[in-house]
């Protein structure tokens, strides 16, 4: 003979059911596993108000597996209506950056008058570019971007590598290297700043430090 459920047990079951229903109504596409530690939460604007998480997932998935999508909705309306923007988190940082490079200010969605706006959410600003971007001085003018990238890639993933060039297209002997995280940039500084030289011609070691802007 089964014992009748207590009032507390019945109440707990009701809460579990209501929470599950709320999550489904919210429309967020979640997974039980977690994204990479350095994954980026991206804010995406200029999306059709009629689009749900389903259409957005189809838009983003070509660039990598999507961990979570949340459409921002106006809760003052019944039912809540999309504000035409969302947050998306990919499982990997690489996928988020590839999506941004392909979509931001490039792709215009049906019914929209302006291209997609895609950038790291405010919560990601602690990983600002200026904290990860290095100025590299005393670079051989014979080197190209691939040479510089090869020298600094042992310290972590490089998002951008650019040699500064004059109007004639020739190298100025310096470059900018942007890493995925501040920790990677700091490791590069510790290993390379005034500790390694590129060729006998210079007789001077690298100058390697964080920069706030391009300084051009």
Secondary structure: number of strands = 8
Q: What is the CATH topology assignment of the largest domain? A: Alpha-Beta Plaits
Strand order of the largest sheet: 2-3-1-4
Q: So, the CATH homologous superfamily of the largest domain?
A: RRM (RNA recognition motif) domain
CATH class (first level) name of the largest domain: Alpha Beta
Please bin the fraction of helical residues.
25-40%
Number of structural domains = 2
Strand content: 25-35%
- Cα distance, first to last residue? 82 Å
Helix/strand-derived category reads alpha+beta
Mean pLDDT: 80
Pfam families: RRM_1
Protein name: CUGBP Elav-like family member 2
InterPro entries: CELF1/2_RRM1, Nucleotide-bd_a/b_plait_sf, RBD_domain_sf, RRM_dom
Organism: Rousettus aegyptiacus (Egyptian fruit bat)
Key attributes of the depicted protein:
Alpha-Beta Plaits; four-stranded antiparallel β-sheet; 216 residues; disordered C terminus; alpha+beta
Provide structural commentary.
The chain has 216 residues and is of the alpha+beta class. It has two domains: 41-121, RRM (RNA recognition motif) domain (Alpha-Beta Plaits, 2-Layer Sandwich); 127-210, 2-Layer Sandwich (Alpha-Beta Plaits). 27% of the residues lie in helices and 25% in strands. The protein is built from five helices and eight strands, in the order H-E-H-E-E-H-E-E-H-E-E-H-E. The strands form two sheets. The chain has a four-stranded antiparallel sheet with strand order 2-3-1-4. The chain has a four-stranded antiparallel sheet with strand order 6-7-5-8, covered by helices on one side. Strand 6 and strand 7 (171-179) form a beta hairpin. The radius of gyration is 24 Å and the shape is elongated. The termini are far apart. Residues 5-28, 198-204 and 212-216 have low confidence and may be disordered.
